[in-house]
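I am writing to request your help with a piece of structural work I have in hand. The matter concerns a single protein, recorded as an amino acid sequence and a row of backbone structure tokens. Could you please explain, in whatever detail you think fit, how the structure tokens follow from the sequence? Thank you for your consideration; the sequence and its tokens are set out here:
>
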Amino acid sequence: MTVELVNRILEGDVRTAARLMRGIEDGAADAFGEMADLYPHTGKAYIVGITGAPGGGKSTLVDTLITTFRQRDMTLGVVAIDPTSPFTGGAILGDRVRMQKHSTDSGVFIRSVATRGWLGGLARAAVSIIHIMDAMGKDIILVETVGIGQQEVDVTRLADTSIFVLTPGSGDAIQMMKAGILEVADIFVVNKADLEGASRSKMELQAMLGMKSGACEEWEPSVLLTEAVNNIGIEELVDEILKHQAFLVSGEGMEKRRKERARLELTEAIESSLKDYIDSNVDKAFLEKLVDDLVQRRTNPQAAASQIIGKSIKR
């Protein structure tokens, strides 16, 4: 990437940023090389992860959060991670119809990303796209993930503040939280609070959170009621996000979270680079033989993987 292109992104040029994002999504080698020049200009934005089971109203909630943050003169990037279309490989929901009213706002940049088979509700390119929005000078970056169960825990490693969204009476969501999300989310939102059972769901969550044992200096997750479609409870949610940010900054929490994010990014880069190397350099006939050996149970996945890695190292 030339100095000129870096400067364009630093100045917030949407077209240049979008081109680089597309290159990252497509796995273009030059795009990842260009990210190296942009990386030193990142690390300033505050990242908020929003996750939860399908049907919880996450997209509507994000839409109202955008409006509220903008009213407070903050600029935003939005990364909407969607399921992958089996036909085109692209994000099924596109740039989210509900958010289109912000498309003419220069202080908001919305990007949909397809998971393309990656687990954990995270897209392979998500971290790089967050970095690009960060370099553009966005104050807050909202990351909305697909709802696919316990694997959604992964978004908490990416975010500074993690929000879990559920709806009244969603027993399945509470069971899912028992499997891990209860331990890692920072804010819980019972959306569609106009429905019956909202107060009961809030009380159940508070009771479950009260059973957690933690040091007195740790953050105590809150439970908020919202009606995103009616813009109720959103101001309180924004206040809680900023309160959590202040809490992290006042101690060692921010440094710990960003170190964890760097670890996640390094791990994904290693996995991606190794996969790309194997795809490009390991003999296809050798791979097919291993597949046949697996089918016939002449080997096992771990042993086959070790053979591939061993063969790659010797090159």
